[in-house]
Amino acid sequence: MPPFPFQEDHEMIREAVKGWLSDWEDGGKTLHRMAKEGQGFDRAAWEGFGRDQGMAGISIPEQYGGADMGLLGRTVIMEETGYTLFSAPFFSTCVLAADMIEAFASEDDKTDLLGKIASGDIIISVLDGREKLSLKDNKLSGTLSPATDAAHADLILVAAKDENNYVVLTGYSPNTAGLSVTPYASLDPTRSQAKVSFENVALSDGQAIGKAEDVTFSQTLQIAHGSLAAECVGGGQRCLDMTLDYTNQRVQFGRQIGSFQSVKHKCADMFIALESARSASYFAASPDLDDDLSAKFEAALIAKNYASEAFFKIAGDAIQMHGGIGFTWEYPLHYYFKRARGNRALFTSSEDGFQMLADQIGLKSHASGISGD
Amino acid sequence: MSIREELNQWMLENLTGEFEQIRWRGGPGDEDSSPELRRAWEQKFGEAGWIGLQWPEEYGGRDLSLMDFVEFNEEYARHGGPGRAGHIGETLMAPTILAYGTEAQKDRFLPGIKNGTELWCQGYSEPNAGSDLSNIKTKARLEGDHWVIDGQKVWTSLAHESDWIFVIARAEEGTKGRDGLVFLLVELDQPGIDIRPIHQISGTAEFNEVYFTEAKAEAGNIIGEVGEGWKIAMALLGFERGASTLGQQMMFQNELNLIIKTANANGRAEDPSLRRRIAEAHAGLKVMRYNALRMLNGTQDGSTSKEGYISKIFWATWHRDLGELAMDVIGADAEIIENELSPLQKLFLFSRADTIYAGTNQIQRNIISERALGMPKEPRGTTNG
Questions:
Q1: B368: distance to nearest CA of chain A, Å?
Q2: pLDDT tens digit string along B236-259?
Q3: How do residues A96-113 score in pLDDT, each as one tens digit?
């Protein structure tokens, strides 16, 4: 029986993905190669996984050429890619961009772009420029950083606010006049980061994807971000697995260190954090929430923030439980620690996320104009 | 009509009149409130057929499915249904009797639970058998047609309001630990039993010491065989992780709502650090609910799934933290007692027990690391016994 709330077909996908990613890892060699190459992106592997294995289309609706497996389907993929730190733009393209396009694009653009996403033939980086980009005389100016997966994107999908506070979504080729993409080395070498500058880039030089009310755009964005919870669960599971292996075989004072209560209790705490993050992640992907945007938004906020805090704690504890070896470059834990730190800060920080959740549950704030005492 | 609608209608018609005053009352930390009324409520509830819904039909149950039972518990709590005086009987004693009891025991004990007339309490802990529960010293010997029991139990919730107690006792001289124990059903109203309340941090006295001096139980009031007491006692604890946790979570939601209301009223809702803590508490409660759903869906056979092991420590720690958060939201005013402790003051004080009873957080971490994670077992001392 597949674990709740998954079905048989999800478990078949999970097994297939697990096997493929385990080959990709190559016993730990691949992450070191990614770090050495410094791009945070394995193009050949992405083509194999997204296009040839058909994973890019996992949650794209059937009418656009996808497998239509919804939030649970992408949860499976994100969990397994998190477990291995698969360095590819599944989240940027197949989650974030796909959700934006599905929510806001015209039917023609959906057919075109979702079709290309599903077949693994396009990489899209989504940039939220609502705060930092200016939109004047139909021209965009400003700089966005860090821009995840922009360095190798075929299309840069940027959101900016117009004078009426509407969100304008535009797709640009990276070669557009006035637009420049500068790759950065990333603290997390398994993820690609860049700086993207707009210098009077005309809206008309890009592809108008759609317009949205700010609130609706925010909710759609956060729901997509919720899928990162699954990546955190996968990464956290890997850290715990490594810690259990290590504390079982490492002997000090004539005993396995895993027999000491201080170590056991720390591992128990890691497990509690991991399983509750898993609940948060599965809750946000639960089919029960379908059609209720507000409930999905809240569940996604909880999932992303709760799970990214948990992953960071677990990864830090894993290093501590490994002692000195956890501090070495050779041992792969640091890649997970760095990914965990990134997941806390990127795509809405945990701090901002919990403040948004506070608004959502009806806590008054200065912004709502209510004074205290 | 769904079970939710059925109960909704009944609650609207019956949680009225004198019972209004126990709405939202009698939950954990508040179990001393209006015991007579809550006993009357339990009987009313039983007469209406709401107790034992998950039991097989031949014992008067409705074979209710798990998800329906979840809905039922949530609906009850949504109405602010009073803390159930019979919850130990229904959620712990009855499933144990159904699983391990004889037909005669089922006939004798299930009806009293089902109609709300016989309330139960749990005789496990002793002065020297707390976390180390198997270090039981209470003795039981069979004399003719009776068990004779001598010893002491402690931390017995609601013994003073109960009719029966289930007791683990040592029946075989010279045994240690988990061997030689029996699981007995003992009537409380008898000369050999003395119940003394323990006054707690909260000023109330839900817990008791129960002294047994040649107390008696009928020979047939043993569940399982002599020597199987530990097995039965542990199986009973397994039933604790059931659907009733979802009803408990509705009580928690009510407390959290009160905290949010307080924060909005006194302006502390604007403090970013308190906002974050309240938001985290909200997230924790949602996570707790989904933990429970995963656990309940994962183990239809009654065994504990791996993730099921986090349930106790998670809710207990969450609830204790909620008590601290409540006080921080109220601020200095929380020092003032007006007439009696407010619900949030009670929450703050009583929730210190949550991380201690039913397996301390430290014991929970041992259990998680050994049973869910398969880490090496704790070495056992030799001075036990």
A1: 6
A2: 887 766 555 777 888 899 899 999
A3: 999 999 999 999 999 999
Instruction: For residues B262 and B331, state if they share a domain.
Output: yes
Strand partners, A188: none
Helix segments in chain B, DSSP class H: 3-14, 35-47, 66-78, 87-88, 94-100, 103-114, 229-240, 244-266, 272-298, 311-330, 343-350, 361-367
Question: CA B72, B77, B83 angle in degrees (round to 5)?
Answer: 110
* Interface predicted TM-score (ipTM): 0.93
Q: φ, ψ for residue A128 (rounded to 5)?
A: -90, 100
Please name the residue of chain B whose CA is at the shortest distance from the CA of residue A295. B286
pTM for the full predicted model: 0.92
Do the beta carbons of residue A133 and residue A198 sit within 8 Å?
yes
Domain A8-118: CATH architecture, name and number where available:
Orthogonal Bundle (1.10)
Closest by CA to B88, choosing from B65, B118, B115, is B118
- Contact assignment for B374 to A244 by CB distance below 8 Å: yes
Which residue range forms the structural domain that includes residue B203? 121-227
Contact A258 B279 (CB under 8 A): no
Q: What is the CATH number of the domain that holds B303?
A: 1.20.140.10
Structural domain count, chain B? 3
User: Which active-site residues of B does the annotation give?
Assistant: 240
Strands A124-128 and B181-187: unpaired
In whole angstroms, give the CA distance from residue A105 to residue A170.
Answer: 10
Q: So what CATH class is A124-212? A: mainly beta
Domain boundaries of chain A, sorted by first residue: 8-118, 124-212, 226-365
* Residues of chain B contacting A302 with CB distance shorter than 8 Å: 282-283, 286-287
| pLDDT over 80 at B28, yes or no | no
CATH T-level topology, domain A226-365: Butyryl-CoA Dehydrogenase, subunit A; domain 3 (1.20.140)
> What are the tens digits of pLDDT across the range B371-380?
999 999 877 7
> How far apart are the C-alpha atoms of A233 and B287, rounded to whole Å?
14
Last residue of a domain, one of B64, B85, B106: B85
B30 and B58 housed in the same domain: yes
Length of chain A: 373
Examine the pLDDT at A371 and tell me if it is beyond 50: no
Selected for mutation to probe chain B from A250, A264, A352 (highest B CB count within 10 Å) is A264
Residue B45 lies in a domain: yes
Residue A213 CB coordination number (10 Å): 11
The answer to whether the Cβ–Cβ distance between A365 and B374 falls below 8 Å is no
Specify if B304 maps to a domain. yes
Give B23 to chain A, closest Cα distance, Å.
24
Note whether A279 contacts B287, CB cutoff 8 Å. Answer: yes
CATH number of the domain within which B186 lies: 2.40.110.10
Element (H, E) at A284: helix A261-284
Residue in A131, A133, A73 with CA at minimum distance from that of residue A98: A73
Q: Which of B286, B314, B378 sits opposite A302 (nearest CB)?
A: B286
Domain stops at, among B182, B200, B227: B227
Clarify whether residues B266 and B361 are in a common domain.
yes
One domain for residues B316 and B368: yes
Model pLDDT, residue A373: 37
The model's pLDDT over B278-297, given as tens digits with 9 standing for 90+, comes to 999 999 999 998 888 888 77
Cβ-in-10-Å burial (0-12, 13-18, 19+) of A202 comes to: middle
Rounded Cα gap, residues A220 and B76, in angstroms: 34
Residue range B154-191, pLDDT digits in tens: 999 889 999 999 999 999 989 999 999 999 999 999 99
